[in-house]
Design brief:
The protein is an alpha+beta fold. 30% of the residues lie in helices and 17% in strands. The protein is built from 8 helices and 11 strands. The strands form 3 sheets. Strands 1, 2, 3, 4, 5, 6 and 9 form a 7-stranded antiparallel sheet that branches. A two-stranded parallel ribbon has the order 7-8. Strands 10-11 form a two-stranded antiparallel sheet. It starts with 19 loop residues before the first strand and ends in a 17-residue tail after the last strand. The N terminus and C terminus are likely disordered.
């Protein structure tokens, strides 16, 4: 049963269940890919996004959701992710430039769940469009697929920032994203607004310190309530909010070999 209607339809079906069984989705992917074994089909993506995601794909059957969202934001591309949630598959459309996400389930319900289990089974260009009443749809720089006709319902849109933040703090990735790893020092950008996020406890105190001083990963990991993993998660979250100033030349910049899995 398709999640979205075909190109001959003009709207998303509201009578069909928002999620599909994993087994049903896998059969559809296998039929489309003519029996390919990979559960993450990337070949239809923009080359820059494809190259970005290939760094994470080796040896895995699925890609972590944070890594795909980070690639979408980094390259400003609208992507459709199919995310495995237990025995069902959630379609998640990211509008990177507009910093919005479409989900058929309430974002509050999704964020209340165990994000560490989120894994992406399939990635492709977005099949939904954004539009305001009477205004031409807004799209990122990639043209939509030929069968894209549906407009994302406004009541199913949510801000992307909180999802990025929560996935960074509670998702399965425990090391720095490659873009901010290696010989690097960090400080929160002047005027960075984190008011829409749930920042409390040790994270709140760390944010206040990073507003006043430049620190490296080892520094942050030594602060009260932090270790290597939690420091990496915090920095990933801040980076994906465009809240970090990065410096490889600052005296605090060091390479502690905590480089997000990349070799320098």
């Amino acid at each position: 049963m398709p999640i979205f209607r075909s190109s001959s339809s003009k709207a998303v079906s509201r009578s069909k269940p928002p999620l599909r069984p994993v087994s049903d989705f896998q059969r559809t992917v296998a039929d489309t890919a003519r029996g390919e074994d990979s559960t993450t089909r990337l070949t239809s993506l923009n080359p820059s996004v494809l190259e970005d995601l290939r760094r994470f794909e080796t040896g895995r059957r699925a890609i972590d959701a944070l890594e795909v969202l980070a690639a979408a934001v980094r390259h400003g591309r609208n992507l459709l992710l199919h995310v495995k949630l237990d025995d069902q598959v959630l379609p998640l459309t990211v509008f990177a430039i507009e910093r919005l996400v479409h989900t058929p389930l309430p974002m509050s319900r999704l964020l209340a769940g165990p994000l560490v289990t989120w894994h992406v089974m399939n990635v492709e260009p977005a099949r939904l469009q954004l539009a305001a009443p009477g205004v031409k749809p807004l799209l990122a720089s990639d043209p939509p697929p030929a069968d894209t006709t549906a407009v994302a319902p406004a009541h199913e849109l949510a801000a992307l920032g909180p999802l990025l933040w929560e996935l960074a703090l509670r998702g399965s990735r425990t090391s720095l994203l490659p873009e901010i790893a290696g010989t690097m020092a960090y400080r929160i950008a002047p005027g960075a607004d984190l008011g829409t996020l749930e920042v409390s406890g040790h994270a709140s105190r760390a944010v206040q310190r990073l507003r006043k001083q430049t620190a490296n990963l080892r520094d942050v990991a030594s602060w009260p309530g932090f270790d290597h993993e939690s420091a990496s998660r915090l920095l990933n979250g801040l980076y994906l909010q465009a809240a970090l100033v990065l410096s490889r030349s600052h005296p605090a910049a060091t390479n502690d070999m905590w480089d997000g899995g990349q070799k320098h």
